[in-house]
Protein 1
Amino acid sequence: MNRRQLLTAGAGLMATGAMAKTQNMGLPEAAVMDGASTQAPLRPQSGPDYNPVVTLNGWTLPYRMNGNVKEFHLVAEPVERELADGMTAYLWGYNGQSTGPTIEAVEGDRVRIFVTNKLPEHTTVHWHGLILPSGMDGVGGLSHPGIPPGKTFVYEFDLVKSGTFMYHPHADEMVQMAMGMMGMFIVHPKDPTFMPVDRDFCIMLNAFDIDPGTYIPRVMTMTEFNLWTWNSRVFPDIDPLVVGLGDRVRVRVGNLTMTNHPIHMHGYDFEVTCTDGGWVPPEARWPEVSIDIPVGAMRAYEFDAVHPGDWAIHCHKSHHTMNAMGHDVPNFIGADKRALTGMIRKHQPEYMPMGTAGMADMAVMSMEIPDNTVPMMTGWGPHGPIEMGGMFSVVKVREGIEANDYSDPGWYENPPGTEAYEWTGELPEFTSNEKAQTILTPRPDTARKS
Ligand SMILES: [Cu+2]
């Protein structure tokens, strides 16, 4: 199947056996996903209707109705996840992938969630932001005992409010979350006319520290991660957010890393309409173009997609839009690196000085990198290398996109007269900045030792 067919057939695949299933002890089937492509929204087959979400490079967990109860089956287990095409990580996750599948249900539903533990150690699931009985809260040792390896526990509660929530372990969580265990939990409003949108995207911000050429995250890392991911995926292999011109769009973002992420979207202003605490009343919203997502929090924002184009969406911390970078590098900005570069290249032909030709060099020259890693920055656009990695994607707003179509429409063609261009005429007179010239001239006598 090509990509478009796969996206269209995504929801159907889950019921046809293309994904492995297990059935035992009357538990609901545990659907398993074996790839990292974005699955089309999973329309509810039973129970109240709602407009399902789309999890970028992810999927929604199917459920079954058992009487009046919506039953899900989560399996905590070691998984192999392609963080990018050609880079596999050995993570822990749920039902075949990290991040875990998105759970979707409706305000007023009673849910029963079976959690089977196939990890080598105990785990629990905490339902972040949901209002539920204390004993269902998933804090190991506090709410209930940890789920031992090989055992299945049942969580059961009523969904008393709609909104944007998440789930993750509250057991050995430094290890288990560093290994990729987390997912989104979306509760749709009972009233389908409340805050309706045409497209509803889910992004979980997470991070890993995986040395180039290796497969397993370092779980002791506190802040110096080298892979900043959305739903355990990095640019250039994070799928675009495909949007039809005129659509009302919601983007829900959760943060389970150990630092904040200012998520910036180009081309639009928008309003935060929901947090993990609930919906924001219209009179309490204010306009933004970047939203800081605090650690352990969720924000959803909405906009009307009235501006066609390819619009960048990214974390505004520039080190978070890079892959697998080292930080222990001397600073040579302003120095004339030509002679030095020549000398170093005699020994290491791939050496690339920073601040000389931009990171695009790396993409252009396709520097040799170890097996099983991704370049710091790559990604090709219609006009050359994009010089990005990590937490970056593109919102593609186009006319004529069908309601259920999330396949990549390709690059936007800027209409004539709407693209920046090279000036070849006469320039107005500029006063030169002598101080700046002095600073940029190398002065060996004052060069700092690094
Ligand atoms: Cu960030």
Protein 2
Amino acid sequence: MKVTIVGMWNSFPNGTEPTSGYLLEKDGVRILLDAGSGIAGGIQKYIGIHDLDYIILSHYHHDHAGDAEAFMLARRVARQLKRVDRNLKIYGPESGAAAKTIRRMKYTTFLPVKGHKAYTIGPFRVEFHRNEHSVETYAIKVTDDNGAVFVHTSDTCYRGSLVRFSFGADLLLVDSKLYEGFDGKVEGHMNAEEAGRLASKADVQQAVLTNLPHHGEREVLLDSAKQHPVGKVMLAEAGMTFEI
Ligand SMILES: [Zn+2]
């Protein structure tokens, strides 16, 4: 599968670089994982906004789902003009006002995530892990029909169960909102040392630190992560692509 980092900033876009959004593609099937603020514009650098039929939202914070409505409105217009004949399908948590908005939107089909259930979308198998965050939030694992494994932790505290969930992944996108020394348990996020620990214990092929803070020297995040024996680790950048 091909993975494109459309955006990776925490909280708000940085100029034209969006918050969280990751595009997965294989055999003409495209899934967008998270649609944070700026993603509806940012994705059009890579594909047309109507070329996407599946969005999976890890949770409904603005930096992960703020542009979901823009995608739904785009689909409504395209359906009304008969340019597209399929509904947009959005997977997401069942709790929260955003779920109600998605349910009500014409030409969008809402598919509530059940944590224990696996879903098949074209060549992809999608699984979820319930995170520890301030609202109902899921880490997302996508395995393709060649066995390539992608994991996006989304926002979460460090948890041992995430090691099992991510184990052996070819590519791990890991929440690194916090600099080392900040208490992830309080914030509902991981600091970069915890992100490195997760990547190391899960024995992933490569780890990408994402959900990055706007402040501070971000290279320090890498130093913190590398205290643990990890293979390849890097900072997310908008436009980065991976073939796994
Ligand atoms: Zn969040």
Protein 3
Amino acid sequence: MEDARRFVSSFDRPNLYLDVRPGQQRMQQILRFLKGKETQSGIIYCLSRKSTQNVAAKLVAKGYKAQAYHAGIEAEERSQIQDDFINDRTPIIVATIAFGMGIDKSNVRWVIHYNMPKNIEGYYQEIGRGGRDGLPAHGLMFYSFADVIMLRKFAEGTQTETFQLAKLERMQQFAEALSCRRKALLNYFGEHVTQDCGNCDICKTPPNFIDGTLIAQKVCSAVARLQEQEAMGMVLDVLRGSQNAQVVDKGYQTLKTFGAAKDIPWKDLQQYVIQLLNQGVLEIWFHENGRLVLTPLAKQILFKGKKVRLADLIQPVETTTKKTKKKSTRKDLFEKLRTLRTKLATEAGVPAYVIFSDASLEDMEQKLPRTVSEFAEISGVGRAKLEKYADVFLQVIAKHQDALESNLATHERSMELFEKGFSVAEISEKRGISENTVYGHFLKMQELGHKIDVLQFITSEEISAIQKAKQELENPEGLKTYFEYFEEKVPYWKLKFGLLLG
Ligand SMILES: [Zn+2]
């Protein structure tokens, strides 16, 4: 504790912005983060030598001056890299944790943790390399559940396993904290702070809370009905009513909670379960295949009506475009992944779920991994599966994405803008097409099965009028007859909607 206190006094700087983000598409997030920071000094910490090289190479490819730094590099070259960093010749260093010891560079403007560090002490020390000059600096940490799994594997079997795992758990709680980060940090080191700092991601955008009691009850009930024998993936599959082979083999489709949370997307449900873990409602027994186990708190929720608060899941703004694209094409990527899975399963003579569960495919479809390291973060991807399948699955995903990006049809583009919140008039102006055409695009999307609330464009009175016209005109061919019937006062697109909706 003495050590920790000393840390605080040397680090407690309000100029350091603390930021933790979900580790999806980290590289894209980093590139966005670095826009406009080309000449600023910064450090990216990675867990492996290999990822330092990958990340540095990607940054260089994008025109940034970056160097990888790890213990595998010759001492002489390492000191050259350090020297270039200290003297601002190379602004960005992508390093394993070894980097930074004994370097006192005051103008490090940002520190990124590509993976969640293994303990708070390490995190604290590393972000402390930013902003020593007292000017604003940014500490950005990526966090994913896959990081936790990986770090657990590192700790397991070591002499200090229990200790390391406990530290890791604290780190994870910090990453998932829903209250001021600095308060959590300082409290961890025994400095009792009651005021929110105002300079961390949580203070800037506090989460909304929802009454999560019903969700928690469903989750706990599923865990109970699975006799506390299944890991998170299976619990999610059961709650989502997934009919995959593994579920069916075990007869779980007959459980009372099967499909109880099918209205919640897989990813969101997973997040809620993690929150429940953090609130001490559930536990993971890592030594027993990661099975989920109920705690006494879970029993209070199930039987004593104890209320649960869950943080509402806020989607990062940046992914709006991607999400919209995904919405219209989700199904077909999933189908492509399934087809590949079937092919591999047939070749290997094993059931499909042995290759990947539906949950894994769904996760791929959501995260759209581009690289092997991104693929490693997909739920259900261990080392063996990574080696065997990453390449083929990545190929399918890349091909799909490329086709999508180059072939986004004109009606899809209009829809995309509309879903981003642009009005029809704005889309018409932005795209240089008439409003009539924009409505035509919506109509086309509607015909293609894309769900649009068309009643925002046409009233039910208008629909009945058009339907009435249809009867009076005795089902005429072509819209022109209708157009004339309404004395050219109802635009073509509205006539089409009216006919379609009648
Ligand atoms: Zn704060």
